[in-house]
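Predict structure. Chain length: 194.
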Amino acid sequence: MTGTNDMPNDTPQTAVLALGSNLGDREATLAAAVREIADLAGAELTAISPVYASDAVKPDGVDLDAPGYLNLVVSLVWAGDPHALLDAVNGIENAHGRVREERWGDRTLDIDLICVGDLQIDDDRLTLPHPRAAERDFVLAPWADIDPDAEIPGRGRVTELLAVAARTARAHPVSASTDPAHTEVAPGLQEPQS
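Prediction complete.
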């Protein structure tokens, strides 16, 4: 593992996770996954973005024939090793029927670690910051909603990256069943000011 940050792995740090779903009951899956992330030992959920819809992106580009995605971003304070967080979110994905047969294939749930503090990691299991987050408007747009001053370590400000990213995402009208105020998921969590 390589890193430019010498903090111990158990020092609480802000982690940003991107969630997406394009199979099944996408809204219910995302809502359940956010609740499960909030319940992780060592995690304190701090923000949940609005939901965005986006076209499916495959290795060859945007695939308009594939089912579209719903996406959101959450931030949390994580008191643990980033690899333990990866293991935990992989477990949540698996519990929701995630199948890994095709690179960037359709999925019931995808949870990506975008960054954990300023850590820079590149090993066989985890790359931080996420290597493609700076190019993905379906990550950048919801992230900018919860933290307009956010930066991807080594890449730049999220709002500036969003300004030049290819457009696949658009605002999604979230139904009441997904609790747009997020009161069921994280009571007392404040919506970001616009």
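Summary: The helical segments are 26-38, 82-95, 137-146, 158-164.
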